Amino acid sequence: MAMRILPFVGWLLLSGCIAQNVNILTNYVDNARTGSNLKETILNANNVNVNTFGKVWTYRIDGLMYNQILYLSNVTIPGVGARNVIYAGTMNDVMYALDADQDAVIWKRDYRDSARGIEAVPITDKVPNQAGNIVGNVGITSTPTIDMSTGTLYFVTQTKETDQQTRKISYPFRLRAVDIATGTDKFGGQVVINGSYPGRGRGHVNGVLYFDNFYANQRAGLALAKGQIIIGFGAHEDMNGFHGWIFSYDASTLAPTGCLCTTANGQAGGAWQSGRAPAVDDAGMVYLGTGNGDWNGVTDWAQTILKIDPARRLEIVDYFTTFEWDVLNIRDMDVGASGPILIPGTDLLVCGGKDSKFHLLSRSNLGRKRNDSNAQTVQEFISYIPNPDTPHNREGSIKGGAVFWSRTTGGGSMMYSWGMQQPLYAYRFTNNRFNPQPAAIAPWEAYLGYNGVLQLSANGDRVGSGVVWASVWYQGLAEYQLVSGVLRAYDAENIT
After folding, report:
1. Could you give the CA distance from residue 366 to residue 340 in angstroms, rounded to a whole number?
2. Is residue 156 a contact partner of residue 142, using CB atoms and an 8 Å limit?
3. 143 with 156: CB under 8 angstroms?
4. Which among 409, 434, 425 has a CA at the least distance from the CA of 470?
5. CA gap 201, 209 in Å, rounded
6. What distances in angstroms separate CA 220 from CA 95, 217, 343, 348, 386, one per listed residue?
7. Which residues, including other chains, have CB under 8 Å from residue 59's CB and lie 6 or more apart?
8. Span 175-199, pLDDT tens digits
């Protein structure tokens, strides 16, 4: 049994105290995927330093984590009382509820059962010689989501299941729903994710495509929209002529409500977004980006930012496709690699991709596709400075994703991005446009060479409260192996 350590960091002067009534229910903090917690009243740019901030304890958990933890304050635990709770899912198919104020497990659910032939999926079953971008097992890969109105935690597991009589092996994905306080099943507990879609794309059978759970990779975080759980799929290492799939399930019954294959008459077009969940606006419309693959604007939607209505069985109601989608395909440059951010207080979204470009789009008119340019966009610009010391064919790729601080004080609203083999950038946002010249650039550091995974904390828009948090590796190449990492903190108003 592989045990991993999940560090817990906090303000040492307060013994790791977490601010009360701050809940992180979903991937990148909110449905807009801004990645900004604007209710942080304790940590700020002044007290996050080597003297007052650091690790206070560790949790020992069973398996690696490829997703983001969630957090709830003041959860009433039967027989225990109110607790602040961290929710963490591992690649060994174990879901934890951890006490955020001490090294203790409140509850856990282990979905393996050796007596019944149920185990986590060895990545070598899917990708020979473990030459893929996951190490060890595949289990709970994506970030869960929480519905506070019902007190329910939703997440997806994948297991390897060997029939004890026939010895037949299957690899089902299951959407699971459990109580946030006890971990007990809700709404029947689970449903196997499956579906079919009309089309003659690669692998069809008599004009029907069937979801292939063996090659599928449920990387994108889960989203809750219009009372439905939205689940996106790509594939491991773009294997076997895969398709992108999106499913929706009723949050109160787990009944299937929608199914969309993104390349019904082609192939590929994964909805993976480097783990970022689809964005959801106040009207419940869903926005997500797809990767390389086929496009025709009718049935095939690779290299596209999609606007989808969950109330209409995941109907595509609008889209943006870059005019150079076919050129980007050749270079495996996914337009939707980092997923959209909905910019607060505007009708705009911004999305970065492997081509190092940001596209700023109007949500009410994404722009569809032109044949000669992307002039229909509100704005596009490149986030890239050549690094002669570390040349790479995907230098500048945006996969970790940006975060956005919406504010009227100080220097105004800012977007922060850390692309491949690039430093951390800060871009100013004024009058509904980005200044494509960075307002600030963090220093180059030789060991901080790959996409930083970012989050931001601040006390609203208060000057001096903003901190940009970055998780990056610093030894070796982390695409295909486990390496040491580092958590960095930057003053959001002066990242230099």
Report:
1. 12
2. yes
3. no
4. 425
5. 7
6. 17, 9, 20, 22, 29
7. 5, 6, 8, 88, 96, 98, 103, 105
8. 999 999 999 999 999 999 999 999 9
- The reported pTM is 0.95
277 in Cβ contact with 27 (< 8 Å): yes
Q: Which residue has the tokens 């297991």?
A: 159
Backbone angles phi, psi at 94, to 5 degrees: -120, 130
CA distance 246 to 271: 7
Structure tokens at 32: 């807009």
Where does the pLDDT of residue 15 fall: very low under 50, low under 70, confident under 90, or very high at 90 and above?
very low
More confident residue, 397 or 178: 178
Per-residue model confidence as pLDDT tens digits over 93-122 = 999 999 999 999 999 999 999 999 999 999
Phi, psi of 128 (to 5 degrees): -55, 145
3-state secondary structure 7-66: EEEEEHHHCCCCCCCCCECCCCCCCCCCCEECECCCCCCCCCCCCCEEEEEEEEEECCCC
- Tens of pLDDT, residue by residue over 453-464, are 999 999 999 999
What's the token pair of residue 86? 């961290």
How many whole angstroms separate alpha carbon 328 and alpha carbon 335?
8
* Average pLDDT value for the chain: 91
Q: Are strands 36-37 and 453-457 parallel, antiparallel or unpaired?
A: parallel
Rounded distance, CA 386 to CA 312, Å? 45
- Buried/exposed code over 216-235 (b: 16+ C-beta within 10 A; e: otherwise): bbbbbbbbbbbbbbbbbbbb
